[in-house]
Amino acid sequence: MTGRVLVTGVGAVSCLGSGRAALWHGLLAGGGQPRDVIDPHAHMESALMYLTPEVPAAPVALAHVPLSAGPRFAVAAAREAVDDAGLAGPARAGLPVVLGVEMGNARMHEDRRTGTHRTASSDPDRWTPMTVTAAAVAAALGSRETHTSVGNACAASAYALTVAADMIRAGEADVVLTGGAEGATRVGMGAFNRLGAADPVRCRPFDRGRRGTVFGDGAAMLVLESADHARARGAHAYAEVAGAAWSCDARHPTAPDPSATHVIRAMREALDAAGLGPADVGAVVPHGTGTALNDVVESHAMRAVFGAHCDRLPLINLKAMIGHTAGVAGAFGCATAALALRAGVVPASPRIDEPDPECAVLVPQDGTRPIERPAVMVNSYAFGGNNACVVLTGGAVDR
Amino acid sequence: MSAVVTGVGMAVEGLADPDDLLHPLTGDDSGFDPKVALTGRGMRHKDRASRLALVAAADALTDAGLLTDGTYAGCGDRTAVVVSTNFGNLDSVCSFADTIAGEGVVGLSPLGLPHTSSNSVAGWVAIEHHLRGPNLTVCNGASSGLDALFWAQLMIEAGRADATVVVGVEPGTGAVARLLDGARSLDGAAAVVVESVPHRRARGAAPRAVIADFRRGTPTSATARPVGLRMDPDGGVDLAGRFGECSGALGVLQCVAGVGYLDAGGAGDVLATAGRDPATSMLLTLPGRAS
């Protein structure tokens, strides 16, 4: 499999507002603040989430299936990404959709189980698998191509993006829409509360006082396109998906392997695939969730891969600004990396009260910094020991 | 084609080998018995989908000659897991939703937490055999099993793995029965080992079948040979007609049946179809010299 894969469109809906511009300017302004999900009967110690300002009013349903927030975010971000890439009618009909989704239409199902669902439906008891998010996007765009749902939990959309890039490299498609979408979910928040991994203050990755993650909702979408196809139609690229790699800890169903062996392997294989060395990386969007173990393990892995370069390698502390967006986290990471590469700067992290001495990484808090090297690495990990690493390079890089 | 099928396995009540998928059972009791096979120490604290998947995966790895005395004989770092399931953790998610509604978060059992994650089945299969390559979960509705096989092949062609164990699983839980309004559904799993040709050759394993074509819409035969076994909801062998709704397990089950058919010397190619509008289909052929 050969060929270069470019990012030619970006769309986003996040707690920072609707659209990629809102995401980028919101990150430059220091990110968003979490607020309480109103759910008194769940008895959660922390009901905080980085919530989008509003849920889109449409689409309310796909065929007989009522759609909750997740699929609606997906459709909004997908439309923006496809418009951004300049894809019109026939190009949309032939556009495969490969999304990473962890909870799908979850809120609709949860509400129905607790008797608060009020949407009229001809078939109210019909549950749908996670693929409904990809199906809703494909229907909204008029795509008649394959639509796929990758269910790799919190690494789902980084996996999906790699699948999409491989499809282009394999000659299966010239252009693929990829990304992810999640709404608020009671089961997800409940599980992290029960694990004692939900921070009641805010999401504080790499802070010594961190007490777990804080979820966020929204959607991030990227149009990936072969370089030849983009050149032929004169499309502008944000960045290139230069390399990506996957690995699995195969050790524990929820906790990361403290040795970080396979996280390190994924990072090195992604750099190899990109034909780059550690010194070529100018910024990292870490998985950085704010859980006690993740941030230590990931910091250790970055030191192993980047060595002393770590001291000058700025992290984009994304989850401190938009929360942990679960299945969308990898796509938000890649969208942010693409926007950062275009702008040539790294947004500053929100305040860290006390940097964790066990996390020997650089999290700049003192204003934006220029990206001084050509590549940005994005890490995305999940339950099941799933690890994904994507390396993006600037569109202007001549490779 | 650079990928080839080298092993198949199953965990379907009463069935002993792939040929059983295509013929009436003989009545002997050598087949899979979930009451026995899904219990024991290694099965503790796992949901039904994960248990069924573990049995089928071990069966396929053994069939491929990749499991000796219960230990994986290949390179774990270069071996991938792809799981296709639509209802996999529905029971866990429903029970968590009900517990939160009834008792709040404090009522949740931490032991069940991993199963609320959509990829827990693939995680358990990886943990069981120390498979540290790519770990992919596909939840694609009717076409999911065939999609999973296609992704496994693509992963090998992309150089991301040397071998992949593909599992299609649907558990026969109460949550699924309620969802399907009591309609019959599969309580089982199927597994297929897909391997790169150089890897297969290096270890001297026999090639069993090749995925010659995959597409939305009926494929044109990639060989000059006619289709000898057709598995289609609208004609030929209908596995869902026999086992009930197979959902995410269907495509993988079809592949296992197809390999059983080719193993037994069946004539012609195997065409498996899942879903409608558009249908997804896969053509399996006997391996040629290049495989």
UniProtKB/TrEMBL annotation, chain A:
InterPro entries membership: Beta-ketoacyl_synthase, Ketoacyl_synth_C, Ketoacyl_synth_N, PKS_Beta-ketoAc_synthase_dom, Thiolase-like
GO molecular function, one term: 3-oxoacyl-[acyl-carrier-protein] synthase activity
SUPFAM superfamilies: Thiolase-like
Ketosynthase family 3 (KS3) domain boundaries: 2-394
One GO BP annotation of this record: fatty acid biosynthetic process
PANTHER family cross-referenced by the UniProt entry: BETA KETOACYL-ACYL CARRIER PROTEIN SYNTHASE (PTHR11712:SF347), POLYKETIDE SYNTHASE-RELATED (PTHR11712)
This protein's name: Ketosynthase family 3 (KS3) domain-containing protein
Key words, A-Z: Transferase
Protein family (similarity comment): Belongs to the thiolase-like superfamily. Beta-ketoacyl-ACP synthases family.
UniProtKB/TrEMBL annotation, chain B:
GO terms, molecular function: 3-oxoacyl-[acyl-carrier-protein] synthase activity
Domain Beta-ketoacyl synthase-like N-terminal as annotated: residue spans: 29-170
Transmembrane parts of this sequence: none
Residue ranges that the Swiss-Prot or TrEMBL entry lists as coiled coil: none
GO biological process, any: fatty acid biosynthetic process
KW Transferase (keyword) present: yes
Segment forming the signal sequence: none
GO cellular component terms, semicolon-separated: cytosol
Keywords: Transferase
UniProt-listed InterPro entries: Beta-ketoacyl_synthase, Ketoacyl_synth_N, Thiolase-like
Name of the featured protein: Beta-ketoacyl synthase-like N-terminal domain-containing protein
